[in-house]
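RECORD TYPE: inverse folding
INPUT: structure tokens
STRUCTURE:
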């Protein structure tokens, strides 16, 4: 019987590090990345050609990444065989692809003059759990045996959600009401309404989502109004007359009160707000540290 000596964890880690460094030194790692970049460019170009443009996004700038894909792929494959190309042409091609992606995000998000509304919306895939899906079905007026049949078919449903950017209306705010609580303190009064632009935006978003599902072969489409990612109420402003907090999330009215959540956003953008909230809070934390060091 033959025995094979297995490496200890530390030895295995040292061996893996040595192999990695050797791959970097000999250029294998660089060639592998170049090849992956080439394949990724081709796959991305094909996906945009077959799906995005066929979906008629009404933005001719979406053709740019399709035209750039062969260039990026050529640079990638060239980098597999030439270190010089990998260090010159490939970075330039990759930078151009990234820049195009950034401008594509902007162009898809800006107001379309041909539409009846300002701002825009995005469509996302969502997967409501059974309880939430039941709420969707209930919103259509289904109950009892019919509801149970829908729930039995739960795994055969797909759901799309629309993220709409509503306009920031000055009358949508939180104020103190004349009514008081049991302690004699004024209770909060929430004022909220939607303007015509918001309603047109929601209508278009719902129609777009419905058309996508229908084109995919949906036998039945259910549409409900559902709201999430509630923001606002303590909006940022450049002065107390226009906001509750300043750009660093510090209250105008109460010294050293910092509000670090979604309430500081004037409105909801066409994206989940979590990363924006985290970025704002990280900046506020930096300001706190700096001011603490200055004694303010």
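DESIGNED SEQUENCE:
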């Amino acid at each position: 019987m033959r025995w094979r000596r297995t490496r200890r964890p530390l030895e295995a880690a040292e061996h893996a590090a040595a192999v990695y460094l050797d791959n970097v030194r000999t250029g294998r790692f660089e060639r592998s990345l170049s090849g992956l970049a080439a394949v990724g460019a081709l796959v991305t170009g094909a996906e945009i050609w077959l799906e995005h443009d066929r979906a008629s996004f009404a933005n001719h700038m979406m053709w740019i990444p399709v035209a750039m894909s062969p260039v990026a792929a050529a640079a990638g494959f060239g980098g597999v065989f030439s270190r010089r190309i990998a260090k010159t042409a490939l970075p330039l091609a990759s930078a151009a692809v990234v820049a195009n992606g950034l401008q594509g995000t902007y162009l898809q998000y800006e107001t379309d003059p041909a539409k009846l509304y300002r701002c825009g919306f995005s469509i996302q895939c969502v997967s409501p759990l059974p309880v939430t899906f039941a709420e969707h079905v209930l919103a259509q007026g289904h109950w009892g045996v019919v509801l149970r049949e829908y729930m039995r078919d739960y795994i055969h449903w797909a759901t799309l959600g629309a993220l709409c950017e509503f306009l920031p209306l000055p009358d949508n705010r939180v104020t103190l009401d004349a009514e008081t609580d049991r302690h004699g303190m004024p209770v909060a009064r929430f004022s909220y309404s939607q303007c015509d632009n918001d309603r047109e935006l929601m209508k278009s978003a719902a129609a777009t989502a419905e058309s996508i599902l229908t084109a995919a072969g949906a036998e039945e489409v259910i549409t409900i109004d559902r709201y999430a990612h509630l923001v606002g109420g303590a909006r940022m402003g450049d002065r107390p007359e226009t906001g509750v907090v300043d750009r660093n999330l510090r209250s105008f009215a109460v010294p050293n009160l910092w509000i670090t959540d979604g309430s500081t956003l004037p409105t909801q953008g066409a994206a989940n707000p979590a990363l924006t909230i985290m970025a704002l809070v990280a900046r506020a934390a930096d300001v706190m540290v700096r001011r603490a060091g200055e004694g303010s």
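NOTES: Residues 211 and 217 are 10 Å apart (CA to CA).
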